[in-house]
Write a structure and sequence with these properties.
heterodimer, A: about 150 residues, alpha+beta, 5-stranded antiparallel beta sheet, 4 helices, B: about 110 residues, alpha/beta, 6 strands, about 40% helix, globular
């Protein structure tokens, strides 16, 4: 008789916390995005969440932190704190800048007068692709994004 | 991530392989502008091998479209996956660009 293999432990009990620090260089963005997206894939977030919502929103947050928050200064770093389980992803991007007013910066890029603008879509996409986007100061300028898992 | 540029008749076809994001958008912009400078006027960007695009990638497409149109040319897009279609719909850029389902359809549309 074959010994019965133990059942896989339930994914719903798994919680992963990650912290990544990168220099202020946009070339690191793709690697950080892949680290976070991989955790979401392992916890069975749906395809769209792992190929669109998380990658695009996190790329926007990281590029804001590197280009605007830290003004690409090599001595400054960006921290990414990711806490993900089978119910939600919380990801915080921390830069060394002075911060910004999230609502004050958000102009609707889909208005006819804005549609041909080259910039101004980043915060809008973060808000549309995540369930919530908050900004606050806590030993740096923090942008916190939350996404509920969908099958 | 890389950009391959080929000619199909009088149409310049750009394949975007991987992501089109803040770290590589300038490379795409420069390659297309170089072709525009050489006198090319018809441009097609094929996204069949593209992962995701961020706001700066979208911005470069908008900017290139404007510059090409100013020279009497046109930039068209083809073969967006479902994620990319969603991105263009969310930003309403699907109203700004002519988007074809396949490369062949786009090539015939010029």
């Amino acid at each position: 008789m074959q010994p019965s293999s133990p059942a896989s432990p339930p994914l719903r009990k798994l919680r992963v916390a990650l912290e990544v620090e990168i220099p202020s260089d946009v070339r690191y963005i793709e690697q950080v995005v892949e680290v976070v997206a991989r955790q979401c894939r392992q916890l069975a977030y749906n395809k769209r969440q792992t190929t669109l919502n998380v990658p695009v929103a996190l790329t926007e947050a990281l590029s804001n932190a590197i280009l605007r928050g830290n003004a690409e200064q090599p001595a400054k770093h960006v921290q990414v704190r990711c806490d993900v389980d089978s119910t939600r992803l919380v990801v915080e991007v921390v830069d060394e800048g002075t911060g910004f007013d999230l609502n004050g910066c958000m102009e609707d890029p889909t208005l006819p007068e804005n549609i041909v603008r080259e910039d101004g879509r980043g915060l809008y996409l973060m808000a549309r692709l995540m369930d919530s986007v908050e900004r606050f100061s806590n030993h740096g300028n923090v942008v916190r994004m939350t996404l509920r898992r969908h099958d | 991530m890389s950009f391959a540029i080929k000619k199909d008749g009088d149409i310049v076809v750009v394949d975007v392989e991987g992501q089109l994001i803040v770290g590589n958008r300038q490379e795409l912009k420069q390659k297309v502008l170089d072709e525009l400078e050489r006198g090319e006027r018809k441009f097609l960007v094929d996204f069949s091998r593209t992962g995701y695009i961020d706001s700066s990638g979208l911005g470069v497409l908008v900017s290139l479209s404007k510059k090409i149109r100013e020279q009497g040319g046109e930039l068209r897009l083809a073969d967006l996956n479902d994620d990319l279609k969603t991105l263009f719909e969310l930003t309403k850029l699907d109203t700004l660009f002519q988007i074809s389902d396949t490369r062949e359809m786009a090539l015939q549309s010029f």
